[in-house]
Design a protein that fits this description.
The complex is a heterodimer of chains A (about 100) and B (about 475).
Chain A lengths: L3 H11 L5 H19 L22 E2 L9 H5 L5 E2 L2 E4 L7
Antiparallel strand pairs in A: 2-3
Chain B lengths: L3 E12 L37 E2 H13 L3 E2 L2 E2 L2 E4 L9 E4 L6 E2 L2 E6 L2 E14 L3 E5 L2 E5 L6 E7 L6 H18 L11 E11 L7 E6 L2 H20 L7 E6 L4 E7 L9 E2 L6 E2 L2 H9 L5 H12 L3 H9 L1 H14 L3 H11 L11 H12 L5 H13 L4 H7 L8 H14 L1 H8 L4 H13 L6 H13 L1
Parallel strand pairs in B: 14-15
Antiparallel strand pairs in B: 1-12, 1-13, 3-7, 4-18, 5-6, 5-17, 7-9, 8-9, 9-12, 10-11, 13-14, 15-16
Helix pairs in contact in B: 1-4, 2-3, 5-6, 6-7, 7-8, 7-9, 9-10, 12-14, 12-15, 13-14, 14-15
The chains are: A mainly alpha (about 100), B alpha+beta (about 475).
């Protein structure tokens, strides 16, 4: 069950501002999703390794050799705003 | 308030000196690069781009782990740490949370000649974030630093004073430089430190104050001292201490309250699905172990034992491995270390900028000439400065100057008598008890002989003549 407090916390973490109607709708959706996933809790996972994205594969690595980077114009091409070679974003305060 | 013990733990971020970033082939040496010139779809967090781990970064991190005597996890993996901030284009940082690369170990270091050991809790690999420049109109973001490899080292709360914390960091820098895995320059942000402090009473720990982003040794010491004072004052007034995070204003030496932590941060960690687990084979571990240099504490003990150097001298030499290497080359060429250390620390160090200002063989030659009394110490110092400043080699300078030292007793006495007759006032002063007049007289002869006279012999002669 997603309550008001959890909802408010999720909004903060996701950096979203929801209207009351949106909030109600999402609360119901998220509650259903959560219930659905709770089915997993019924499984016996003792002895199952915690996580393995590609079973059996380890150490997909590369040598420390530089590759060309993007030209700065290219890197900045999709930015809504730029200034002096930087991405420009709205003011931020010390908060993460 | 009595019975309060300061308890300090550190979290240190070390920037690894790899050529490329942790998960892409962009160059990692962002320090002087123009903004956003070292980026690619991977480190910009473009949809669909996939990270590939840099093997060298793993080896560098393993070097640090083995040097600290940490237990390397045979299998570790990466996790996503989720949060929103403009310096983090993906919306998450790839780090190791659940299973770090290594756990345990300790760092040995010395505080005023006394050995300390601080236990390491864990060590893991993670990527750096970008950089923000705040302006009134908005924030400017440079992504060059995004994805640069970091090793995070977390200590156990074994440190007891701010000064000790500073010395620990210095020792860690020395270790990292010996291992060749990082420049470990705090000013360049290659070594960054977060510190946790609490006051314990009768072994019972108090509430933590966290100080973020300390980037100088002095800052670490001062900020911790300020945090301890802040907590102490509150306790003395009977106030409760709340969990808080501070920044440090380096210029004004003041703590800045960043946030009072009411609710813990929720980073929603989960295993990074784009990376396969990291498995460290016995073979890889052996390879890294075999490549470890002599570690600073072993080298330190050897320097004290072999060359009879003081704790302070060894610290300065080891602070830069190149300086310690230079010292060893000079000592080997001279056949003795005590004198070599004196010359390097008092005469050469001030010209040192990351590399020897004078070849080791030339400095050794100079020291030998002084030892054989072929030239005076003063002349040697002059020649040293000329050789460092100019283009001519020391040998040519030596040849160009008739530099055989004046040691002949009779000749020196003649010069001494001359000086005494030219400066009767100095003679009178000396005989009236003003002993500094002796230095004046010696100086006159040294000037006349352009530093070639044997000063100690000369002083003896003056003393004899003046006493009679």
């Amino acid at each position: 069950m997603i309550d008001e407090r959890t909802m408010a916390n999720l909004e903060r973490l996701a950096g979203l501002k929801l209207s009351p109607a949106e909030r109600e709708r999402l609360k119901a959706d998220l509650t259903r999703i959560l219930e659905y996933f709770q089915k997993l809790g019924e499984l016996d996972t003792d002895g199952v390794p915690p996580f393995d994205p590609l079973p059996g594969r380890v150490n997909a690595w590369r040598e420390d050799e530089p590759q060309p980077s993007l030209a700065p114009e290219e890197a900045l091409a999709n930015a809504p705003q730029t200034e002096r070679g930087h991405f420009k974003v709205p003011r931020v305060f010390g908060e993460e | 308030m009595r019975g309060l013990e300061t308890v300090i733990g550190l979290e240190i971020h070390v920037q690894l000196a790899t050529a490329t970033k942790l998960f892409c082939g962009c160059r990692a040496d962002y320090f002087a690069a123009p903004p956003n010139t070292l980026t690619c779809p991977v480190c910009l967090g473009m949809p669909g781009a996939l990270p590939v781990l840099n093997r060298k970064a793993v080896e560098y991190a393993l070097r640090v782990a083995l040097a600290l005597g940490a237990q390397v996890k045979r299998r570790s993996h990466f996790d996503r740490k989720n949060y929103f901030y403009p310096d983090l284009p993906k919306g998450y940082q790839i780090t190791q949370r659940q299973v770090p690369l290594a756990v345990g170990g300790e760092l040995r270091f010395w505080v005023e000649g006394e050995e300390r050991r601080v236990r390491i809790r864990e060590l893991h690999l993670e990527e750096d974030a970008g950089k923000l420049v705040h302006t009134p109109a908005g924030a400017l973001v440079d992504m060059n630093r995004c994805g640069v490899p970091l090793v995070e080292i977390v200590t156990e709360p074994d440190l007891r004073t701010p000064g000790e914390a500073k010395e620990f960091l210095r020792a860690l820098r020395t270790l990292l430089r010996h291992l060749g895995v990082s420049g470990a320059d705090m000013e360049k942000g290659e070594l960054r430190c977060d510190a946790n402090l609490s006051l314990a009473r009768d072994g019972e720990w108090g509430v933590k104050s966290e100080i973020k982003n300390l980037n100088s040794f002095r800052g670490v010491e001062r900020a911790l001292a300020a945090a301890a004072a802040w907590q102490r004052e509150r306790l003395e007034r009977g106030e409760e201490i709340r969990l808080a995070t501070f920044g440090w204003d380096e210029g004004r030496e003041r703590l800045l309250l960043q946030r009072a932590k009411e609710e813990a941060h929720d980073y929603r960690y989960f295993p990074e699905p784009d990376l396969v687990p990291l498995e460290v084979s016995e073979e890889l571990l052996e390879k890294v172990r075999a490549g470890l240099p002599e570690l600073p504490w072993a080298r330190r003990e050897r320097f004290v034992r072999e060359y009879r150097l003081s704790s302070r001298e060894v610290e300065v030499l080891l602070g830069e491995p190149e300086l310690a290497d230079y010292f060893e080359r000079v000592a080997a060429a001279v056949g003795e270390g005590r004198e070599a250390a004196n010359w390097i620390l008092t005469e050469v160090l001030r010209f040192w900028q990351g590399s020897p200002p004078l070849p080791a063989e030339e400095l050794a030659l100079l020291i030998q000439k002084v030892r054989k009394k072929e030239i005076s110490r003063t002349t040697a110092k002059e020649l040293l400065e000329e050789a460092i400043g100019g283009k001519e080699s020391l040998e040519r300078l030596l040849a160009g100057r008739a530099v055989r030292q004046l040691t002949d007793e009779a000749e020196l006495e003649k010069l001494a008598r001359e000086a005494m007759s030219q400066h009767p006032q100095a003679v009178a002063d000396f005989q009236a008890g003003k002993t500094q007049a002796l230095g004046f007289l010696v100086g006159q002869v040294m000037r006349k002989t352009k530093g070639r006279a044997d000063a100690s012999k000369l002083a003896q002669i003056f003393q004899r003549l003046l006493a009679s």
